[in-house]
Write a structure and sequence with these properties.
Length: 66
């Protein structure tokens, strides 16, 4: 599993109050900018939860491995 980004809450990187902090804060580079939307590359996400904590809009939902 990996985190999920709620696109109803995240209005895109240009509109992000922190300028896409999720992308910058990810230690594995698992989030990239895809047409102004943060895009999680699931194979790179290690579920560390940092982006969940950093997102100013609480748009990122943690998902735990089961
Ligand atoms: S949970 Fe961690 S590894 Fe996964 S996208 Fe967020 S910051 Fe990156
Ligand atoms: S930090 Fe949150 S609001 Fe900003 S681009 Fe990332 S998911 Fe969207």
């Amino acid at each position: 599993m990996a985190v999920k980004i709620n696109e109803d809450i995240c209005n895109g990187i240009t509109a992000c109050p922190e300028g896409g902090l999720c992308i910058e804060s990810c230690p594995t580079g698992a989030i990239d900018n895809k047409e102004d939307k943060p895009n999680v590359k699931y194979f790179s996400c290690v579920d560390c939860g940092i982006c969940v904590d950093k997102c100013p809009n609480q748009a990122i939902i943690a998902a735990r491995r089961s």
